[in-house]
Design brief:
heterodimer, A: 81 residues, mainly alpha, two-stranded antiparallel ribbon, 3 helices, 5% strand, B: 579 residues, 1% strand
Chain lengths: 81, 579
């Protein structure tokens, strides 16, 4: 039972870290030049991801992970008191 | 006494009074309260405290200035110093909280069932934290001397006294409540000028949106487009695309800061203060919300400060400012030597360009951008006074967190854990207060006599945490089989490679004459600067550890059971396996 709780946790972490990598290292660094051709108001999109968008995504990711883990804790009945 | 000085004394005096009151109100009575605030801090409170703990004088004063002059290249600091919290929330904090100990070296010692591992971790922690603290002490001295015109030394003594009172009295508990107050002070002080300036320039009060808006002068041109145009005309790199020395460098730099953040002991320690695993995850989320408030405003502050600076000196192409008509803030900062003008062509006007031969702004210190910003934008005096209190709050809160990390490593890990296991709780509490007093005196001494290497050391702090502590914690949690020999070998290898690289390019102990391969960029490994090398050190750490693990066999079964235990939130806290 505990292995599968851990495996589900690992799967969640991998999904989150993939998104974490894509918005920062992907959109903010490696793909910044093509993305800069697109505009978001006065922002070039790649520049926006590097200085704003990645940070907002990080915040969202942590809360989503926390929410999912609370569900997982309940599902496997491993909540701490 | 002029109005500005009066307001500044009121702001600084008032906030200091508040910190003292909170420290007295929340003083610590037990080691558990002293190290971990009794485990009774709510996630939201902890998030704010982490925010203040994390955001130092460097975040408050230096970062926006760096971004102002680096443009897009400054993004490494924004992504690097926030992305680490994702790692903390998912990969480190919940499991270390479950394990239920007070300090990072204690966790490493337990997990790798080895006193040597614990001592190696203590050494990494002390080097990283002491190097960090020098910068905070300097920040306190500079803020006092700049805003209140007292001597640098006097400012430093005042700062030491304040930290001494509330850190030794309250321990983690007192520090936590003080840091919550300091967070509120510093975020207010940071955002109010930014809102004013954003409103002035773009008509939008939210700086994050203002940065992407059109200018309020009716031209309909976007702020960032105008800034790009102004700086490129003068020969500077285009603001929104200006790179560092390349994408490899930016990649490595961002990664180093991210994993360095996740490995800094004074931040991790804060997760031991919450009551549950669930609360540990949540507090990482709140922490990042509170940090993001400043970090998403900083790029707007940077770009707008650069824009205002350029506009003041050259309001329209070719119409340069007469030196004799320079504004008051220009004169003020000239007095400090951080701003220097030299009339090279003798026309009495100020020419500012990227061409070293004709540029007359011979020195524009990056650190003045945040501090001078309110005066450049002609904001009222009470706003400037607020910035002084905010800068001090940022420096003091980080210094206190670092001091606590150092004193707990010495009193709890070295004295109680290794040298005198029989020490009573009362004596341990007394010892940690004494160690903290010594640490404050030592930090103050270093602030008074900043060693030649002070400037290069913050990078070393991140490099060390990234290459030694972070990989050890990750492997301890995610690889059940990881054994003590492999982990110690990995830590030493990662640490060694990083220190060698930094010394090689910046000089042994940062004495420039002792750099044995020269600091030239041509010699950088794959174009990676010493500041960004922690990520390579971390790779070396992982590689060495797994090779040694192959040769030495898996960790004993009771250790693997302990790992299973801290991977699940419920159930008993593991017993210590001291040898």
């Amino acid at each position: 039972m505990e292995t599968s709780y851990w495996q589900e946790n690992l799967r969640l972490i991998l999904i989150c870290l993939a998104i974490w990598f894509i918005v920062s290292f992907g959109f903010g660094l490696l793909l910044v030049e093509p993305l800069n051709a697109i505009r978001l108001g006065g922002y070039k999109l790649g520049f926006w991801f590097a200085q704003q968008g990645s940070i907002y995504t990080f915040v969202g990711l942590i809360f989503w992970y926390t929410h999912k883990m609370n569900q997982l804790d309940k599902k496997y009945n491993v909540e701490d008191e | 006494m002029d109005e500005l000085k009066l307001y500044t004394w009121i702001a600084v005096g008032g906030t200091f009074g508040l910190y003292f009151f909170l420290a007295w109100w929340a003083r610590a009575g037990s080691t558990s309260e002293f190290y971990a605030a009794g485990g009774g801090i709510t996630p939201m409170q902890n998030g704010m405290a982490i925010g203040a703990d994390w955001m130092s004088a460097a975040s408050f004063i230096s970062m926006a200035g760096l971004i102002a002059f680096l443009g897009y290249g400054g993004s490494v600091f924004l992504m690097g110093w926030t992305g680490g919290y994702v790692l903390l929330a998912m990969c480190l904090a919940p499991y270390m909280r479950k394990h239920g100990k007070f300090t990072v070296p204690e966790f490493i010692g337990d997990r790798f069932y080895s006193r040597t591992a614990r001592i190696v971790a203590v050494v990494c922690l002390i080097i990283a934290s002491v190097t960090y603290i020098i910068g905070q002490m300097k920040g306190v001295g500079v803020a006092f001397s700049m805003f209140l015109e007292v001597e640098y030394e006097t400012g430093l003594y005042i700062g030491m006294a304040v930290v001494f009172v509330y850190a030794t009295l309250g321990g983690m508990k007192g520090i936590t409540y003080t840091q919550i107050a300091q967070y509120v002070v510093l975020i207010t002080a940071y955002t109010i000028p930014a809102i004013f300036i954003s409103l002035q320039l773009t008509g939008n009060p939210i700086p994050q949106l203002g940065l992407g808006s059109t200018l309020a002068d009716g031209s309909g041109v976007y702020l960032l487009d105008k800034l790009d145009q102004v700086v490129t005309q003068l020969g500077f790199k285009e603001y929104t695309t200006a790179n560092m020395t390349g994408y490899v460098e930016m990649f490595a730099y961002t990664m180093s800061l991210m994993i360095g953040t996740a490995g800094l002991p004074h931040v991790i320690m804060r997760f031991f203060t919450v009551p549950s695993v669930k609360a540990a995850r949540q507090s990482a989320g709140y922490a990042l919300v509170f940090i993001a408030l400043l970090y998403t405003v900083a790029p707007a502050v940077g770009a707008m400060a650069r824009f205002n600076l350029m506009n003041t000196i050259e309001p329209a192409a070719g119409q340069n400012l007469e030196y004799a008509e320079r504004p008051q803030w220009f004169k003020d900062w000239e007095r400090t030597g951080l701003l220097q003008f030299e009339d090279k062509n003798g026309d009495g006007k100020i020419q500012y360009s990227a061409d070293a031969n004709s540029n007359e702004m011979v020195k524009v210190d990056r650190d003045i951008m945040v501090l001078a910003n309110p005066s450049i934008a002609n904001l009222p005096n009470w706003v400037i006074a607020l910035v002084a209190a905010g800068g001090l709050a940022a420096a003091l809160s980080t210094a206190a967190g670092l001091l606590l990390a150092i004193s707990s490593a010495v009193s709890h890990d070295l004295m109680k854990g290794v040298l005198m296991p029989d020490m009573s709780e009362k004596n341990e509490l007394r010892a940690s207060r004494i160690v903290m007093t010594i640490s404050i005196a030592f930090a103050g001494y270093l602030g008074l006599n900043p060693p030649g290497f002070a400037a290069g050391t913050v990078a070393l702090a991140f490099g060390l945490a990234a290459s030694s502590i972070f990989p050890a914690l990750m492997m301890g949690i995610f690889s059940k089989k990881m054994n003590s020999k492999a982990a110690i070998a990995g830590m030493c290898a990662g640490l060694g490679v990083t220190m060698l690289y930094v010394f090689q390019h910046k000089g042994v102990m940062f004495i420039p004459e002792l750099k044995y391969m020269g600091g030239m960029e041509e010699n950088w490994f794959l174009g990676i600067s010493p500041n960004a090398f922690g990520s390579v050190g971390a790779l070396v750490n992982f590689a060495v550890a797994f090779i040694v693990l192959k040769a030495t066999g898996p960790a004993p079964s009771h250790i693997q059971e302990m790992v299973d235990n801290f991977r699940t939130p419920h159930g008993e806290v593991a017993a210590a396996h001291d040898h």
